[in-house]
Amino acid sequence: MATNSERWIRRYHPAPDASTRLVCFPHAGGSATFYHPVSRALSPEIDVVAVQYPGRQERRTEPLVDSVEKLADLIVPELEPWLDRPLTFFGHSMGASLAYEVALRLEAKGTTLLGLFASGRRAPSRWRDERVHQSDDEGLLTELRSLSGTDPAVLGDEDVLRMILPAVRSDYRAAETYRPQTGPRVGCPVVVLIGNDDPKVSEDEARSWAEHTTEDTTFRFFDGGHFYLNSQAPQVLREIRQFVAERGAMAAK
Fold first, then answer.
1. Which of 27, 38, 98, 206: CA 20 to 30 A from 176?
2. Rounded to an integer, what distance in angstroms lies between the CA atom of residue 173 and that of residue 97?
């Protein structure tokens, strides 16, 4: 598919014959390549695309966006060329908040998702007074090390760190200052995935996602911390495959 959205959307393993599409939203400081293994595993059964935020990798010279709402506003038009088949969203950490906001905007335009996977993130209505984005560089690095989601080789390379820390700080600012509007809810099922030892989301905070959809909410708990999905990838992929197959079949009737 030739589109004008190449800057924003990465499609590593095109699956033109797939009946559904999975749109993946990276975590704070993350990039689209985080979902390359997901794309490889699910293609050609599901057409997988990942959103590439400004300020990282080949977009590193572009201005950063430090607001979930602003990012959602920018992403919605970039997804328009990809609405030719039913969509499921998958967002991890900040990406879950962003996926939710994009889903609300798409629904306002008449597109309803098959479902939304909210991974490693408390419900939008559950706020914590977190200020990691106000930390110095060493404070940011301490946060990244504690979550075990960043390649140790990257954390030990000063030149690479200099390049990625501005994006990390911007994303943390977006995630920590996010305050959703009260009232709107998505009209699709929400599947909530969390690690049992995730310091960023409690079970109670996760279960509040049920307040943000008019459809069913399903909860899945995995062994691990904030980046449980790295060690639990086969189980997470199984959840995605099963959900998409069931909801896709229902939508096709």
1. 38
2. 13
Distance CA 50, CA 182 (A): 28
Domains of the chain, each with CATH number or no CATH: 9-252 (3.40.50.1820)
93 is catalytic: yes
Dump strand ranges (E) for 60-216.
87-92, 115-119, 190-195
Q: Which one from 93, 97, 119, 170 is the annotated catalytic residue?
A: 93
> For each of the chain's 253 residues, which pLDDT tens digit applies?
434 578 999 999 999 999 999 999 999 988 999 999 999 999 999 999 999 999 988 998 999 999 999 999 999 999 999 999 999 999 999 999 999 999 999 999 999 999 999 999 999 998 877 777 767 878 777 777 776 655 555 555 556 666 778 888 999 999 999 998 777 899 999 999 999 999 889 999 999 999 999 999 999 999 999 889 989 999 999 999 999 999 988 877 6
Contact 199, 228 (CB under 8 A): no
